[in-house]
Design brief:
- By secondary structure, the chain is an all-beta fold.
- It has one domain (2-101).
- It has strands spanning 2-7, 10-15, 19-23, 30-34, 37-41, 46-48, 57-77, 82-101.
- The strands form two sheets. A four-stranded antiparallel sheet has the order 2-1-5-6, with no helix packed on it.
- A hairpin with a 2-residue loop joins strand 1 (2-7) and strand 2.
- It is elongated.
- 14% of the residues are buried.
Length: 103
């Protein structure tokens, strides 16, 4: 059983009992319900939303936060002795999918 869910304007392919890194969510640790489900597939049935499936929900547990890899931005101007280095580390939320409920 799998589903496609929209979280903060991004779509994720999710399966039950797996953990995913998504963009940082405002909620803290605990259980949340995701209701913007675009597609749900079971062993014998495929449900497709227009754009969302009414009544379908995904229950997930926020397992914590994690920092991503450092991304460096380097700006260099030739013959000016001007250099600028900036770094950024994105913070991700870890979601463990506990249940996929279709209507």
């Amino acid at each position: 059983m799998f589903a496609i869910v929209e979280i903060d304007k991004k779509q994720y392919f999710v399966e039950k009992d797996k953990t995913y890194k998504v963009e940082r969510l405002s909620q803290k640790e605990g259980e949340i319900t995701l209701d913007k489900v675009l597609l749900v597939s079971t062993d014998d049935k495929l449900s497709l939303g227009t754009p969302y499936i009414s009544g379908a929900k995904i229950k997930a547990v926020i397992a914590g936060e994690e920092k991503g890899n450092k991304v460096l931005s380097y700006k260099y101007r030739r013959r000016k002795k001007s250099r600028k280095v900036r770094g950024h580390r994105q913070i991700y939320t870890l979601l463990k999918i506990s249940d996929i409920i279709e209507k």
